[in-house]
Specification:
Length: about 325
């Protein structure tokens, strides 16, 4: 997705220097954070962080705007092309992009850096009750099912999970819809379900339950979790608490992978240091952005990060006394 705007031009001229060891921030910067489609969690959290940074770093001449996108996979492309400087990513997509695996086979993006873990990306495989047989995720077989927008993290993670559980794309009639459109299509009877991984609660799924669409969030067995991790070891057990969604008064045993904030290594150290510092010096405001943002804390900051830290984030966390795993130390930093 191309940004045809003055913001892009200024961002491209104002964000160089990180690769040359420059630690000082340029005089004026316009940065873009790539998110995902409205209706999920990436977009509102990206918008909230962009607004916070723009407000708190105004005196540093740093402005940040959020851009909707198809999700994690497109966000990698946007950063590589310089059309965005920051992005929110799934753990799976981060591993694949940095190591050149999966969708990025043979084309690793070694310029991808991490800033902070944001929140768990909880798998929501939603199916109309009339199609539910066992209550587990394999019930999607034989249904008309949305696997997310093309080139999105949702599509990639859904296909990985299906492959791990012995399902292939031909086992479903696949649709490629965003979260809001998925919910609308379920309510209209055009599809029977959809995959909508996000932080809880997912607004599109809240809408389904509130409108009494007669749906179920399918569960993962321990054996299914193990099978998924045998393919890509990035998921963990997650239990959705009772009453997270209207009328659902029991636990839902699903799985989750980490969501994290990434940045291109071309952004200078001082700018990323200020972005990181602003998050943790304004946690009350950050936690008010979305329920999922309440997971953001220094204790959780490094959990599950799939690629090395940016030098700016590394400097901030070192100042705070965090024990940084060797795999997260930026290349060239001793």
């Amino acid at each position: 997705m191309a940004l045809i705007s003055l913001f892009l031009t200024l961002a491209l001229t104002g964000c160089g220097g990180g690769g040359n060891g420059n630690t000082s921030a340029p005089k004026q910067q316009f940065l873009t954070v790539a998110t995902a489609s409205p209706g999920g969690t990436y977009y509102p959290i990206g918008v909230g962080l962009a607004n916070l940074w723009s407000e708190k770093l105004k005196d540093k001449d740093i402005r940040v705007s959020a851009q909707s996108s198809a999700g994690s996979v497109e966000n990698v492309d946007l950063l590589q092309k310089g059309e965005a400087q920051l992005g929110i990513f799934q753990g799976l997509i981060g591993v694949q992009a940095y190591e050149g695996r999966g969708r990025f086979e043979g084309s690793p993006y070694k310029g991808l850096r991490s800033i902070v873990m944001l929140w768990p990306n909880v798998e929501h495989f939603v199916l109309v009750n009339s199609a539910v047989k066992t209550g587990s995720v394999t019930d999607i077989k034989g249904t008309k099912f949305s696997i997310g927008p093309r080139a999105s993290g949702t599509e990639e993670s859904t296909l990985v999970i299906m492959k791990a559980l012995g399902l292939n794309p031909n086992d479903i009639s696949a649709e490629h819809l965003g979260y809001s459109d998925t919910a609308s299509a379920i309510k209209d009877g055009r599809i029977q379900g959809g995959s909508m991984p996000a932080g809880i609660p997912v607004s599109a799924i809240t809408d389904l339950y509130a409108s009494r669409a007669n749906v179920t969030i399918l569960e993962f067995t321990d054996e299914q979790l193990q099978a998924v991790n045998n393919l890509y070891n990035t998921w963990f057990r997650f239990t959705i608490p009772p009453n997270t969604y209207p009328g659902v008064d029991k636990e839902i045993k699903t799985i989750a992978q980490p969501n994290w904030l990434g940045v291109a290594d071309t952004v200078d150290e001082e700018t990323v240091y200020l972005l990181t510092k602003t998050i943790f010096e304004n946690l009350d405001a950050v936690h008010g952005i979305h329920d999922s943002a309440k997971n953001i804390s220094l204790d959780n900051a490094l959990k599950g990060l799939p690629v090395p830290l940016h030098p700016g984030a590394y400097r901030y966390f070192k100042e705070k006394g965090l024990d940084i795993p060797e795999k997260l130390i930026p290349p060239g930093v001793k």
